[in-house]
Design brief:
This protein is mostly helical. It has a single domain, classed as ADP-ribosylglycohydrolase fold (Orthogonal Bundle). Helix content is 62%, strand content 0%. Helix 1 packs antiparallel against helix 2 and helix 2 packs across helix 15. It starts with a helix and ends in an 11-residue tail after the last helix. The relative contact order is 0.19.
């Protein structure tokens, strides 16, 4: 879950960029949190405080109206009578990682991922994207192999993760759908050697770089045993007090490896 926020923050300055080398400054001075972080924390808050996903998304989203939401979500956020809008955009997948940490069997994780998605993203592809990411996070944190995670993504959700990163870069497009984003982010994780490498892989694909890195970071964090402390400290410096406090509270409640912001070791 912190890995998702880290991917968003690091990728924030590269959104819309063409494919590029993996050799870039990890934390540019302009790095910031965007809607991916706000809504990831909103889902975590819903779980920790046992409130409705829609209520939490609207409460947190309205606190950060300029975080960079898509148009349909922005309208949903501020309407008096919000209804699901049949979206298959990647917003359902980028905000779901906390679900993979909070529940203790795969079917419950997938059910909660559905619940978190369908308040907005009621299209089957929108729901599937959230379930795939939450399922991959759950398998990663419970000791499964990359081969097993890849099998879940392909056999249960139909995502082809057999492409190579070099091929994805060559044919890259700006794709904000779940079906375009989730397998690409998964490949960035599957080809990685550690957490940072997964983030660099995802951002090197260009396009919707912050969301690709958010999803890849979520998977990498659970598989590699956490987000490195040095990266966490940089991320926490870029979150304001409410976002930082909720992130720490969720991490401590659900066993997400966390460092104390500002501490050294």
């Amino acid at each position: 879950m912190i890995g998702a926020i880290a991917g968003d923050v690091i990728g924030s300055v590269y959104e819309g960029s063409p494919p590029q080398s993996k050799k870039f400054p990890l934390f540019d001075p302009g790095c910031r949190f965007t809607d991916d972080s706000v809504l990831t924390i909103a889902v975590a808050s819903a779980i920790r405080n046992r409130v409705d996903y829609a209520d939490a998304l609207r409460r947190w989203g309205r606190q950060y109206p300029h975080a960079g939401y898509g148009g349909m979500f922005y309208d949903w956020l501020f309407t008096d009578d919000p209804k699901p809008y049949h979206s298959y955009g990647n917003g359902s997948a980028m905000r779901v990682s906390a679900v993979g940490w909070a529940f203790d069997d795969l079917e419950t994780v997938l059910g909660e991922a559905r619940n978190s998605a369908q308040v907005t993203h009621s299209h089957p592809e929108g729901i599937k994207g959230a379930q795939a990411v939450a399922g991959a996070v759950f398998l990663g944190r419970t000791g499964h192999t990359k081969a097993q995670i890849m099998h879940l993504l392909s056999s249960r959700f139909g995502y082809d993760c057999s492409a190579r990163l070099d091929d994805l870069r060559e044919h890259a497009v700006f794709d904000v759908t779940c079906q375009g984003t989730v397998p690409a982010a998964a490949i960035a994780f599957l080809e990685s050697s550690d957490f940072e490498d997964a983030i660099r892989n995802a951002i090197s694909l260009g396009g919707d770089a912050d969301t690709l890195a958010c999803i890849a970071g979520a998977m990498a964090e659970s598989f590699y045993g956490g987000t490195p402390d040095r990266i966490q400290r940089e991320v926490f410096q870029r979150l304001d007090e409410p976002l930082r406090t909720e992130t720490l509270a969720f991490a401590q409640a659900y066993g997400v490896p966390v460092c104390v912001p500002g501490a050294t070791r």
